[in-house]
Amino acid sequence: MQKLIVLFAANLALxxxxxxxxxxxxxxxxxxxPKPTDEKPNKFDWDVRKPGILDLKTTGTFxxxxxxxxxxxxxxxxxxxDHSQKIGxxxxxxxxxxxxxxxxxxxxxxxxxxxxxxxxxxxxxxxxFSNIEGGLRYGQTFNTPYGNSEPFFGGxxxxxx
Length: 161
What we know:
By secondary structure, the chain is mostly beta strands. Helices cover about 10% and strands about 55% of the residues. The protein is globular, with a radius of gyration of 19 Å.
């Protein structure tokens, strides 16, 4: 069953990679994607939830040449009531020319194992006011007290208008 899902995911990723939106001026012309401009590329956030839980998160851009971008993040959460903690890190890559993106996140859940998640995205449509993406997601938790979890696979379509 997992082989079928992986094969389906690979075929979907290849199909999405060759989809190019067209404008009204003729077939095959790509709509240019506006590049994001970050006035403040590095960011640090903190929050106190439910008495006794402290969350810290930082994000930043490692590389941006106008055609591709690599962002990173790190997070830390400490529960002072039950003394558990979560530590996580992630990398996200986006290529503006091919409209493809990939992300990898790893989170150590203290006594509950290590969660690994990966995501591939393809921008299907983007203009000034809206964005539609499709993608695939994989995740699994390793080294839990009960062994490794079953891997999960999923596809999604998301949009912002």
